[in-house]
Design a protein that fits this description.
α2 crosses α6. The protein has 229 residues and is an alpha+beta fold. It is 38% helix and 17% strand. It contains 8 helices and 8 strands. The strands form 3 sheets. Strands 3-4-8-7 form a 4-stranded antiparallel β-sheet. Strands 1-2 form a two-stranded antiparallel ribbon. A hairpin with a 5-residue loop joins β5 and β6. The protein has a single domain, classed as 3-Layer(aba) Sandwich (NADH Oxidase), CATH 3.40.109.10.
Length: 229
C-alpha cells in the first residue's frame, strides 16, 4: 500500500518526511552561528541557586529524547532531582566515592592531568544547582511477565542523547557539568531505580554563579580533529 502520505515497508507504516531546504548561503550562516553558540559553552562548577521553571527542564529533556537510538529503543531514563534532601544524599555519596578516587584509584598521571582544571573531591554544586539530571541507560526492558528484552547500541544511544541534552541546556541559557563519580551505583540505590537501569551520567543544571571562573583552556583546531578524504 502506498499513498502520498505514507508507504508500508515490511508491513510497517513509513510516513513522508519533509525537511526545510535552505540556500547554501543560509546553510553556511546557520552552521557558523551554531558553532559560535556551541563554542561559548563551558563546563561550569560554580552555580547559582536561582530557581528555573520546571517547564524549561522538561523541554530540555524532550530535546534530549529526540536523539537517534538503536532500533529506536530509546534506552534511557532522565531522572530530574529538585529535592534538597535527595541532592544532599547524592552529594555525600558522590564525595565519598570521589575521595577514594583521588586517594587510591587515580594514577599520578591522571591527577597531574587534572591539576590545570582545579578539581578535587568536594562537589558543592550537587546541592547548589536547582536541578540535577541523572541519565540512566537501560540495557534491556522487562515486560509484564518478567521476561527480558535487549536494547541495542545502548552506550552509543545514551551517549548521543547526552550530547543533545548538554546542547539543549546551553541553548536555554543555562550551564552544566558532566559529573561521573565512579562507581555510580549509589545513584541507582538513592533513587530506587529498577533493576534494568544503570547510572550513566550526572549533570547539575542551573544558572552560573555571579562570579564564575573557568580554566583558561583552548579547543583543538579543526586540522587536529578533522581529516578530509
Amino acid at each position: 500500500m502506498q499513498t502520498d502520505d505514507f508507504i508500508l515497508v515490511n508491513g510497517h507504516k513509513h510516513i513522508f518526511y519533509n525537511q526545510e531546504e535552505v540556500s547554501e548561503k543560509e546553510m553556511l550562516q546557520r552552521s557558523e552561528d551554531y558553532f559560535n553558540r556551541c563554542n561559548k559553552r563551558r563546563s561550569v562548577r560554580d552555580f547559582s541557586d536561582k530557581e528555573i521553571p520546571i517547564e524549561v527542564i522538561e523541554n530540555i529533556v524532550k530535546s534530549a529524547s529526540t536523539a537517534p537510538s538503536g532500533a529506536n529503543k530509546q534506552p534511557w531514563t532522565f531522572c530530574v532531582v529538585k529535592s534538597s534532601e535527595i541532592k544532599k544524599k547524592i552529594r555525600l555519596a558522590a564525595e565519598e566515592e570521589e575521595r577514594k578516587s583521588y586517594a587510591e584509584r587515580m594514577s599520578e598521571e591522571w591527577l597531574d592531568d587534572l591539576k590545570h582544571i582545579g578539581t578535587d573531591a568536594n562537589k558543592p554544586f550537587l546541592e547548589t544547582a536547582p536541578y540535577l539530571i541523572i541519565v540512566f541507560k537501560r540495557p534491556y526492558e522487562i515486560d509484564v511477565e518478567g521476561k527480558k528484552h535487549p536494547n541495542y547500541y545502548v552506550n552509543e544511544s545514551v551517549g548521543l542523547a547526552c550530547g543533545f541534552l548538554i546542547s539543549a541546556i546551553h541553548n536555554a541559557g543555562l550551564v552544566t557539568l558532566t559529573h561521573t563519580p565512579s562507581p555510580m551505583r549509589f545513584l541507582e540505590q538513592i533513587l530506587e531505580r529498577p533493576s534494568n537501569e544503570r547510572a550513566f551520567l550526572l549533570l547539575p543544571v542551573g544558572y552560573k554563579a555571579a562570579k564564575t571562573y573557568v580554566p583558561a583552556i583552548e579547543r583543538k583546531p579543526l586540522d587536529e580533529v578533522m581529516e578530509l578524504y
